[in-house]
């Protein structure tokens, strides 16, 4: 697969109280946004925190884009990405991921 690829990850996070969940959400957002400009081939990164508060929603979504599949593969083992994963520890209790090629619309 060649061309740009979108990488979307959503997490459910630990936290017994609303304050603990809020702190967990902020930590994930801060750590992943800290990757901006630090990983070659990572062309866009955005982190959203859920505000719906419905019981089936994920807490955080990572929306990122990579130059190509090779850049995404390199990201998986990049030391900065691994540092973030280690810092999050067992904060995540559920993880969902979708990767797909970005098609140019010509519009």
From TrEMBL:
Gene3D superfamilies: 3.30.70.100. InterPro entries: Dabb (IPR013097), Dimeric_a/b-barrel (IPR011008). It comes from the Bacteria. Residues 5-100 form the Stress-response A/B barrel domain. Signal peptide: none annotated. This is Dabb family protein. It comes from Bradyrhizobium barranii.
């Amino acid at each position: 697969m060649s061309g740009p690829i979108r990488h979307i990850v959503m997490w459910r996070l630990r936290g017994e109280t609303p304050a603990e969940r809020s702190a967990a959400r902020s930590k994930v957002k801060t750590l992943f946004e800290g990757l901006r400009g630090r990983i070659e081939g990572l062309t866009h990164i955005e982190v959203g925190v859920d505000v719906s508060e419905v019981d089936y929603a994920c807490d955080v979504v990572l929306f990122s884009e990579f130059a190509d599949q090779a850049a995404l593969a390199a990201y998986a083992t990049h030391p900065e990405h691994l540092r973030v994963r280690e810092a999050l520890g067992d904060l995540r209790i559920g993880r969902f991921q979708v990767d797909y090629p970005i098609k140019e619309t010509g519009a």
